[in-house]
Write a structure and sequence with these properties.
The structure holds two protein chains of two kinds. By secondary structure, chain A is mainly α. Chain A has a domain of about 270 residues: MetI-like fold. Chain A is about 70% helix and about 5% strand. Chain A is built from 17 helices and three strands. A three-stranded antiparallel sheet of chain A has the order 2-1-3. In chain A, helix 8 crosses helix 15 and helix 13 runs antiparallel to helix 14. Chain B is of the alpha/beta class. Chain B has two domains: about 230 residues, 3-Layer(aba) Sandwich (Rossmann fold); about 70 residues, no CATH class. Helix content of chain B is about 30%, strand content about 25%. Chain B is built from eleven helices and twelve strands. The radius of gyration of chain B is 21 Å and the shape is globular. The relative contact order of chain B is 0.14. The chains are: A mainly alpha, B alpha/beta. Chains A and B meet through helix 1, helix 6, helix 13 and helix 14 of A and helix 2, helix 3, helix 4 and helix 6 of B.
């Protein structure tokens, strides 16, 4: 068969240079700026902390000897949630490394096909893993105080994580203590370790940022694509709806909605998502207006391609760049909104750690200003939001062809 | 239209555009037919409605502001103006394919050549990915792209204009359409490539028994390739006859002017002959015969200024729209 011959040829030409792709061009431009790289690494570190949070800050020891037997309490008490995060992280890393590998080893023509198979396999494993976890992982509650056991001599040779406190631990004896050797960043009003809560709060902030923006961008892209492609009456009605959405002050709308729904993380994500898609929709609409009359889109229509393929296969990749930038800014915005909501007491319910909610405990009931409760979560929010904003700006500059000189 | 051999038959097609300044009548009352395996050339100056006619056939007129005001377009025996968008998708690419004027921008920059041809093939034919791929490669070979296996995995920006136009042709013919609309396929290319592309179209036409609607303003191209010619002027057909007849015996003063303005090989001319004046704007066409403002015969004629001549058969298979065409008023 001819096909096989061609495939053989490809294997031979594996080391061939396929030229610079658009992504590589953007990356070259992006990585020239040191600020961008610093921000990127900061966010990667944040992600690592978020994923490994239970291993960094936990009141259960990694290994402990009780009556001569070896126990692994930390692993025993990991929840299905934790495992789901691990699986998702591993899948994500695998995918990214596969994409990088593809761009070096696989013929560009086969790339999308190969990638699809890989994505399908990865998401398949992810789903199966999570379902298995939910079915077979009973949540184990372990209220044993291992430190007391060590103190009383029952157990020995324990290895604790870096921050040996759980985020839900309350110990009124040590409440509102400033930073010390035991509690590096101090304790809050119920005696929880601030550092531990900061580390676990990373999860909340990052997941809110991503899920909310994911929802917003899907709505925005579909809405904007339809408006931009069809134009005319559909565009008119869509834009009026969008303008109504924009004229409502988002933050107050969110507060109002939050008041009616139970305080859960998912609700907050959804609410932020469905109120912040307007920018994405406007960007995509503008891009699609421009692309609509491009020859290759006309050519695609004249080939008889279905609408779905024209909109999302042929037009979207050509107009996605400004939305990528707005997504980066959107993540920062969503983290900010979540912090603000939690600060005002509309956010996630207390034992769940959230940076904004920690900020709000900075002033005690007696009116005393507890600086460590304000400074550290404040800095965490500040650095994260700044990193995302700088990243967005870097991305915008890297994508803008006018700023791109000969690379 | 059940007559055998007629692939496309357009009857009294009018396409208008609603603009802020009024209704622009881009195409008015245009009728022509294309027979199986034949080439019809649609000739005219820029802005005379050639491309709008082509887009109307594909139903690619952006609405609004454009609309097909009246007329019928028969593909075989179906009036495609009555088709739903879904039915139309089955016609586009599969039965009627189109090559666009500008090869530099007609390919999607984010996909490889192979990807784009394969998508076109798998859309209309039941083929597996691998089959479609080797078919696409054969197509590239057919349009004489050197080293098709390598080109398949390249992005459009790596190809020259001529190559891209070949890819467009390969894509258009990959579904074996019975009618190919070539909207100035060679305008953006240099002369040697032009000849190659036209040869290629000729060859493919013969091997696939395909009809071609060739839209051009190059009379040299028309003389070589077309079987029939329709000359368009200011949204209407001015003259319609076989190619030989047109060059031997042009009847409409506009056609005569066009032929007269061709450079002659072997004669030394300081200046080329031109037709005086400009094409009237579709927003305010002159009254009467639309050509009378530039016509050497009709510029002072009362009848030409007030009454518009219809397209009439003046001799066998020779249609003209001019009061002064011999045999017009029998």
């Amino acid at each position: 068969m001819k096909t096989n011959e061609y495939k053989k040829m490809e294997l031979k030409t594996e080391k061939k240079n396929w030229g610079t792709s658009y992504g590589q061009l953007v990356w070259q431009q992006f990585s020239k700026n040191r600020t961008n790289l610093v921000c990127m690494w900061f966010i990667i570190i944040l992600f690592t902390i978020a994923v490994l949070a239970p291993f960094i800050a936990n009141d259960k020891p990694l290994i402990i000897h009780i009556d001569g037997k070896v126990h692994f309490p930390l692993f025993d008490t990991l929840t299905a949630n934790d495992y789901a995060v691990f699986i998702a992280a591993i899948t994500g890393i695998t995918l990214i490394s596969l994409i990088r590998r593809n761009s070096r080893k696989v013929d560009p023509f086969l790339r999308s096909g190969v990638l699809w198979k890989q994505v399908l396999i990865c998401t398949g494993t992810l789903l199966v893993g999570i379902i298995l976890l939910l079915v077979f992982m009973p949540r184990k509650l372990d209220a044993t105080d291992y430190r007391a056991m060590i103190a009383s001599g029952k157990a020995s040779d324990a290895i604790f994580p870096l921050v040996p406190y759980g985020y839900g631990r309350t110990d009124i004896k040590v409440s509102q203590k400033p930073p010390s050797n035991e509690h590096w960043l101090g304790t809050d009003d119920v005696g929880s370790d601030v550092l531990c809560r900061l580390i676990h709060g990373t999860r909340i902030s990052l997941s809110v940022g991503f899920v909310a923006v994911g929802i917003a961008s899907v709505i925005g892209i579909v809405f904007g694509a339809i408006m931009g492609y069809f134009g005319g009456k559909i565009d008119f009605l869509g834009m009026r709806l969008l303008e109504i959405m924009m004229s409502v002050p988002t933050f107050f709308l969110i507060i109002t909605i939050v008041a009616f729904f139970p305080r859960s993380l998912l609700n907050i994500m959804i609410i932020i998502g469905i109120t912040s898609w307007t920018d994405d929709a406007r960007f995509i609409r503008a891009e699609f207006f421009k692309l609509r009359n491009q020859d290759f889109v006309q050519a695609a229509i004249s080939l008889g391609l279905p609408l779905r393929s024209i909109l999302f296969r042929h037009m979207l990749p050509n107009g996605i760049a400004p939305v990528l930038v707005s997504i980066t800014f959107g993540v920062a915005g969503a983290i900010f909104i979540e912090s603000a909501l939690s600060f005002l007491g509309f956010g996630v319910a207390p034992p769940t750690p959230s940076w904004g909610q920690m900020l709000s405990t900075g002033v005690s009931t007696t009116g005393e200003f507890l600086w460590w409760l304000t400074l550290f979560p404040g800095l965490a929010i500040f650095f994260t939001v700044t990193a995302y904003n700088l990243l967005g700006e870097g991305l915008r500059d890297a994508i803008d062809p006018k700023l791109r000189k000969a690379v | 239209m059940t007559e055998n051999g007629k692939i496309l038959s357009i009857q009294n097609l009018s396409t208008f555009f609603d603009t802020e300044l009024g209704v622009a009548k881009a195409v008015q009352d245009v009728s022509f037919e294309i027979e199986k395996g034949k080439t019809l050339a649609l000739v005219g100056e820029s802005g005379c409605g050639k491309s709008v006619t082509a887009l109307s056939i594909m139903r690619l007129i952006p609405t609004p502001p454009g609309r097909i005001e009246s007329g019928k377009i028969f593909y075989r025996e179906h009036n495609i103006l009555e088709f739903s968008e879904k039915q139309m998708r089955g016609i586009r690419g599969n039965k009627i394919a189109m090559i666009f004027q500008e090869p530099m921008t007609s390919l999607n920059p984010v996909y490889t050549i192979g990807d784009q041809i394969v998508e076109a093939i798998t859309l209309h034919q039941k083929k597996t990915y691998e089959q479609a791929w080797s078919m696409a490669q054969e197509m590239l070979d057919k349009v004489r792209i050197p080293d098709p296996a390598r080109r398949m995995s390249e992005y459009p920006h790596l190809l020259s204009g001529g190559m891209r136009q070949r890819v467009m042709i390969a894509m258009a013919i990959s579904c074996k359409p019975s009618l190919l609309i070539a909207d100035e396929p060679t305008t953006a290319l240099d002369v040697t490539i032009q000849a190659q592309i036209l040869d290629l179209l000729d060859e493919l036409q013969q091997s696939e028994n395909m009809s071609i609607l060739l839209i051009t303003h190059d009379l040299g191209v028309v003389a070589q390739r077309a079987d029939d010619v329709a000359v368009m002027y200011a949204s209407k057909i001015a003259e319609k006859c076989s190619c030989k007849e047109l060059f031997k015996n042009p009847l409409h003063p506009y056609t005569q002017g066009l032929l007269h303005s061709l450079p002659q090989l072997g004669t030394r001319q300081k200046r080329l002959n031109t037709i005086a004046g400009n094409v009237p704007e579709p927003l305010n066409f002159p009254s009467g015969c639309k050509f009378h403002t530039r016509c050497p015969i009709g510029c002072n004629d009362k009848r030409c200024q007030t009454a518009e001549p219809e397209l009439k058969e003046v001799s066998k298979d020779h249609f003209a729209a001019c009061w002064y065409a011999p045999g017009y008023e029998k």
